[in-house]
Specification:
Layout lengths: L1 H8 L5 H12 L5 H14 L3 H14 L2 H26 L24 H15 L2 H13 L4 H27 L2
Helix pairs in contact: 1-2, 1-4, 2-8, 3-4, 3-5, 3-6, 3-8, 5-6, 6-7, 6-8
Length: 177
């Protein structure tokens, strides 16, 4: 129902987003936990209150409590890591890359779900946040774990669509004021 409400709110000029939202979620080959964890982390990373409200309820219903918490932890830690590592990468002084980060990231060692699921969610958040270093790192971990490119692409397709829906609906809300 929440997914349907979100799709119906998308304006006609963005009907491709409506169709894409239905297909990346409704026609996904990802297992339910990977799919709905990816949807949840992307809704959080999109920073769109409407998207998060509409998708969180369904994600919460489809995920175990452990997976729900793990997905939120992936969104939280990657919000920090993406800014940190993207900034290190963008600074012209390579010495920053030699300094100790000094940031706690214990959840990466024990996320509470299969490591592959958490990595996939971390990759999706990194796609929304535009951190090339994190994208490369998570993609390499997933590939070494035997995850195929199609599965990885499925995660960043979800990220792209959820982010675009958030941007579109938030813009419409501002324009309607």
């Amino acid at each position: 129902m929440s997914l349907d409400a979100l799709k119906s709110a998308i304006p006609d000029y963005a009907k491709d987003l409506r169709l894409n939202l239905g297909s990346v979620i409704g026609d996904s080959d990802l297992p339910q936990q990977q799919l709905w964890g990816t949807v949840l982390v992307c809704a959080i990373a999109s920073r769109s209150p409407r998207v998060l409200r509409e998708l969180e309820e369904e994600a919460n219903a489809k995920l175990s409590p452990e997976a729900y918490t793990a997905a939120k932890s992936a969104a939280a830690v990657m919000a920090m890591n993406n800014v940190f590592h993207r900034t290190r990468h963008l600074l012209s002084d390579p010495e920053y890359g030699t300094l100790r980060a000094g940031l706690r990231m214990n959840v990466l060692g024990d996320p509470g779900v299969a490591k592959v699921d958490h990595e996939l969610w971390s990759l999706a958040v990194s796609a929304i946040n535009g951190c090339g270093r994190c994208l490369d790192s998570h993609e390499q971990v997933l590939r070494r774990a035997g995850v195929d490119r199609e599965t990885i692409q499925e995660a960043f397709k979800i990220a792209a669509v959820v982010q675009a829906v958030g941007v579109t609906l938030d813009a419409e809300a501002v324009l309607a004021e």
